[in-house]
């Protein structure tokens, strides 16, 4: 039966099985393309096609000059209105947060403009390390109008979902997200949090959450671990 399956699909199935059974462990390098060529008696082009597919699906990631590695995990984040905690639970992980800062301050003019509030109006600034099974995968910075959400700072957001609190306690349900995504080099304190080293590649997402009346609910500026996320864009 295997003879009827294209070789590149045999290779992808082989690597997936070795990942799922723990033979190829998370974060470890896999054999070279040449080793797979020898093992499956095929061309490097065929092996590369198989590995490219697994990279695109998030099972593997490449580091230039070093090789191809097994992803720590994959968080397939659909660009639809569902919060971090919801996504993590759907994927079978336990979400949690470590609070970096939660304070009231005057926003920068650009943020006030995004939230459609006066530059003199206060905002809640919530900065958190977002984790799944206690592993850091994102740094999230959120700004919310204090006038609209009085007493928000009385809630704990180490375990609670911000979206859920906004919906159940303030009748503010996010129905639309308008975001920009781009790759960034992360260095210093943020890199040490996300990667445990002085620099790494991250994905930066920043934009505004809106309610059903198209009133801004929050402005978020977040950095995600560059090798642990796939963003699925859904057009409706």
Shape: elongated
The named CATH superfamily of the largest domain? Chorismate lyase-like
Q: What would the average pLDDT be, to the nearest integer?
A: 86
The main sheet orders its strands as 4-5-6-9-8-7
Q: Determine the N-to-C terminus distance.
A: 39 Å
What is the CATH class of the largest domain?
Alpha Beta
Give the tally of structural domains.
2
CATH topology group of the largest domain: Chorismate lyase
Helical segment count:
7
Kindly provide the radius of gyration, computed on alpha-carbon positions and rounded to a whole number of angstroms: 21 Å
Helix content: 25-40%
Task: State the main characteristics.
236 residues; 35% strand; alpha+beta; 6-stranded antiparallel beta sheet; 2 domains; Chorismate lyase; Arc Repressor Mutant, subunit A; two-stranded antiparallel sheet
Folded structure, characterized:
The protein is an alpha+beta fold and 236 residues long. It has 7 helices and 10 strands. It folds into 2 domains: 2-70, Arc Repressor Mutant, subunit A, CATH 1.10.10; 75-232, Chorismate lyase-like (Chorismate lyase), CATH 3.40.1410.10. The chain is 28% helix and 35% strand. A hairpin with a 5-residue loop joins β8 (199-210) and β9 (216-225).
């Amino acid at each position: 039966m295997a003879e009827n399956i294209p070789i590149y699909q045999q290779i992808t199935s082989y690597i997936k099985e070795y990942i799922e059974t723990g033979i190829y462990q998370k974060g470890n390098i896999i054999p070279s393309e040449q080793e797979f060529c020898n093992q499956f008696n095929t061309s490097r082009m065929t092996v590369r096609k198989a590995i490219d597919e697994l990279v695109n699906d998030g099972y593997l990631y490449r580091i230039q000059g070093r090789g191809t590695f097994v992803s720590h995990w994959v968080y397939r984040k659909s660009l639809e209105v569902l919060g971090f905690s919801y996504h993590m639970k759907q994927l079978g992980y336990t979400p949690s947060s470590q609070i970096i800062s939660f304070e009231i301050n005057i926003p920068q003019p650009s943020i006030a403009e995004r939230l459609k509030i006066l530059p003199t109006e206060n905002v809640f600034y919530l900065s958190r390390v977002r984790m799944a099974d206690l592993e850091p995968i994102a740094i999230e910075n959120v700004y919310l109008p204090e006038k609209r959400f009085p007493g928000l700072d009385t809630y704990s957001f180490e375990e609670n979902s911000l979206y859920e609190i906004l919906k159940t306690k303030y009748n503010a349900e996010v129905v639309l997200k308008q975001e920009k995504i781009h790759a960034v080099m992360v260095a210093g304190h943020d890199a040490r949090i996300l990667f445990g080293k002085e620099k790494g590649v991250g994905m930066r997402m920043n934009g505004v959450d809106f309610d059903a009346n198209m009133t801004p609910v929050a402005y978020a500026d977040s950095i995600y671990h560059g090798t642990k996320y796939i963003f699925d864009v859904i057009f409706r």
